[in-house]
Design brief:
Length: 345
């Protein structure tokens, strides 16, 4: 039976001639209507915790472009915030946190997850779900433990997550406790998102690609699997997309072991290689270069066509290989959607 939502059909294993399309970071700074609302709202975190505003931002890209899915407007760093770590965003600089420096900083977080602090997020979900067109799926999300931990330890974005990698080598027991705290919090948070009304989930492991293989196994693959197992046990049937950016040669194994319904592919993955070497099972999502979208023109058309060709016949969700860049012209997003929706004709 075909669902009326193309994204959910593909997550259940259906290949569609016209793949459903949504974009990571589709609710954000490239949209003038987002800039306008943000200018009126308070801080970025205040905006995330304002259900009325967050619901409107979630709906903005659907209203403007008609994507096949809406992604909840929030941030991965609301989880450290609800764990009691101080989090703020400096405009032009990104996130700032009071960094975790030693074992006792980690242990202080144990048992401290205050899910009540995230009540506004669940209220946002409740507001959005009644407003979505019937063909549009609703995606909830969280950051994966490794990626969230990397911000908690560095206290900011870094190019290579060196502070968290060093912490994990120097204090593996404390780091494992931090990852466990994040697994538990993420599971509880995702279940509450489902109960509030999202229909599928994406877990963002944006910094999976910086780790050597054994560390990848321990801090990326194992915690992702734990979260997926636990959420599926509690709420069977809700599909989960795992995005391990930089997962590279791990992807064929993750397809067989994670239990995810889709794997997100980053920009560096060759779609022809992916279609050939990632075993059937999960749908594949991706992986247009955000810079090709920014550039537009013939280069954009060429990249779109090559992705469509490579994944033809497989369950595929069209997306970027990472988030939309703030400088992206709106017409290029329209060009992308029109071209993808002409596929199969
Ligand atoms: C690593 C990460 C973060 N947040 C997120 C990730 C994983 C995905 C990725 O790698 O891009 C995920 C995220 N962040 C945001 C969303 C909302 C939904 C959507 O995808 O549109 C989602 C899913 C809003 C946001 N999160 C942020 C903004 C910009 C805030 C503003 O200036 O108005 C938005 C719209 C801020 C943010 N939040 C974060 C950073 C590093 C920054 C600053 C730099 C940047 O914007 O990329 C942490």
């Amino acid at each position: 039976m075909s669902d009326r939502k193309p994204l959910l059909d593909v997550l259940r294993g259906e290949a569609r001639a016209i793949p459903p399309i949504w974009l990571m970071r589709q609710a954000g700074r490239y949209l003038p209507e987002y800039q306008e609302l943000r200018a009126k709202a308070g801080s970025f975190l205040d905006t995330c915790y304002n259900p009325r505003t967050a619901a409107r931002i979630t709906l903005q890209p659907i209203e403007r472009f008609g994507f096949d899915a809406a992604i909840l407007f929030s941030d991965i760093l609301v989880v450290p915030d609800a764990l009691g770590q101080k989090v703020w965003f400096e405009s032009g600089h990104g996130p700032r946190l009071v960094p975790l420096e030693n074992d006792s900083d980690v242990d202080a977080l144990s048992g401290s997850f205050d899910i009540g602090k995230l009540a506004p997020v669940f209220e946002t979900i409740d507001r959005v779900k009644g407003e979505l067109p019937s063909s549009v799926a609703f995606i909830g999300f969280c950051g994966a433990p490794w990626t969230v931990a990397s911000y908690m330890i560095a206290g900011r974005g870094t190019p290579d997550q060196a502070p968290a990698r060093l912490f994990a080598y120097r204090r593996p027991e404390a780091f494992a406790r931090l990852i466990d705290i994040l697994v538990e919090a993420s599971v509880a948070y995702l279940i509450r998102q489902i109960d509030a009304g999202v229909e599928t989930l994406q877990i963002f492991d944006s910094w999976a690609g910086v780790l050597p293989p054994q560390e990848f196994e321990r801090w990326v693959a194992a915690p992702l699997k734990k979260i997926i197992d636990k959420v599926k046990e509690a709420r069977p049937g809700v599909p989960i997309i795992a995005f391990a950016r930089g997962g590279a040669t791990h992807l064929p194994r993750l397809a067989e072991t994670l239990g995810a319904d889709a794997l997100g592919l980053d920009t560096a993955i060759d779609p022809v290689w992916a279609a050939k070497h990632i075993p059937a099972g999960p749908a594949l999502q991706g992986n247009l270069d955000p810079l090709a979208l920014l550039a537009g023109g013939a280069a954009l058309d060429r990249e779109i066509d090559s992705i469509l060709r490579s994944f033809a016949g497989r369950p595929h969700i069209f997306n970027l290989g990472h988030g939309v860049l703030p400088e992206t012209p709106l017409e290029h997003v329209s060009q992308l959607i029109e071209r993808v929706r002409r596929a199969g004709n």
